[in-house]
Design a protein that fits this description.
This protein is an alpha+beta fold. The chain has a single domain (20-115), classed as Phage tail protein beta-alpha-beta fold. The chain contains five helices and five strands, in the order ααβαβαβαββ. It has helices at 2-13, 23-32, 45-59, 74-78, 90-101; strands at 34-44, 68-71, 80-89, 104-107, 112-115. The protein has a three-stranded mixed beta sheet with strand order 2-5-4. Helix 3 packs antiparallel against helix 5. It is globular. The termini are far apart.
């Protein structure tokens, strides 16, 4: 049985594409990286997201890259935000920045997707 397990590890290990990363695996990685301090004053939303991406690479020694899909209109990226955090996971910092920018965060297998919330349709007109 041990021989079979070693054989499977050797086979799967040689095919990196065989094991797809799940959204929860990405979230798990970002939950484990702790940002000691994060102080942003009147920073653009886009620069705040980029800064967190750089912090992720620095904290992980380049092992974790924060791939971000910015699926929101340009005015959102130009919004200014301010926050001061200490001792928080990367995922928490990203959640706070997204909240201040008015976007949602979706953790996918290989990237974090920041989306503008869907427009709420107006209520139907009332009958006369």
């Amino acid at each position: 049985m041990k021989l079979l397990a070693l054989f499977l590890v050797a086979i799967v290990g040689s095919f990196p594409f065989a094991l797809a990363q799940s959204p929860s695996a990405l979230r798990f990685q970002l939950d484990r990286l702790i940002i000691p301090t994060l102080n942003l004053q009147d920073a653009s939303f886009d620069s705040a997201v980029d800064f967190i991406g750089q912090k992720t690479r620095d904290l992980s020694g380049g092992k974790v890259a924060l791939n971000v899909v910015k699926a929101y209109p340009k005015p959102v990226g130009d919004r200014t935000i301010s926050l001061s955090l200490s001792g928080v996971p990367v995922s928490t910092a990203l959640d706070y920045v997204a909240q201040l920018g008015g976007v949602t965060v979706d953790y996918e297998a290989r990237a974090v997707v920041l989306r503008a919330p869907a427009a709420v349709p107006p209520p139907p007109p009332s009958a006369p």
